[in-house]
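General statements about sequence and structure are easier to judge against a single worked case. No coordinates are needed to read the tokens, only the vocabulary itself. The sequence in question and its structure tokens are set out directly beneath this paragraph.
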Amino acid sequence: MTTNSPLFDINQLSSEHQKIFHIVYDELKPHHTSYVQFKINLKLKTNLDIEDEDNEWRYEVHRYLRARKWHVTHTVKCILEMIQWRKDHRVDSILEEEETAVQVELLRKIVPNVYHGNTKDHLPLYIEKSGLVHVDKILNMFTPEGLIRCHIYILEYNCQLTRECSRKLGKHVETFAMISDLNGCKMDLRKVLHLYRQAIYIDEHFYPERLGHMLIVNPPFIFPILWNLVKHWLDPITQEKIIVIKKGHETAATLLHYIDPDNLPKEYGGSCNSCPTFPECIPIYDWSKDTAANDKPGS
């Protein structure tokens, strides 16, 4: 097999897991072949490399096996559901949808965020000022379907970044990391918790084993209330990947354990000085100057 990505090495698995992997891979082979043909027929701007696709598929099967505790029947069922979901929701062409890309840019104004280098483990790093979310603007400017489509777009972009990291480093990278800054978070966030629940369902069922770790900083006093509502929607393994950092000196020390200083904004204890908007690494949109938005109800 020739591919630009690091090859999946089944010999890294135990003999028992190798047997299970082959059972699942062989059972799904005709379905995957059909799915690849489906993607070819989409006539995407980026041509598919069949051997590269098969290599990535092996990693996908491995992720699902880990997530489904190496249960053959459950894994096959979940992967078949994932393939159908991707077809039904046009997921493989989403990064080429101009309308969705525009919506994602609008969402970036409502929920300030940025992709900011990598962690020490070479995971793509996404930073979001979740506490500054304009809840009413989300409800007024997006349909629930449109917002979920933006979420899928971001997930696909994250997966693309991990693939690029793998090729650059010459070793497999399949997860991404996130810093969620809850400073300023208010209880009106409860208005969109049903959308968070939908997003979590998509993460858990169609992108298993993709989250490396989520670092939550500046948790407000209402955080335990919100966390008690959300945590029940998360798989226990996912919960273990979420690290809540208390305010104070602990924030910088913990973040610097995972992220080199030059990949961390100064406001979190890093030394980044290369961002176009330096010293503000995460631009915050000034809605008071947006007359078009201010004309909308709830702005």
In short: The chain has a mean pLDDT of 92. Residues 15-41 form the longest helix (27 residues). The chain has two domains: 11-88, 98-294.
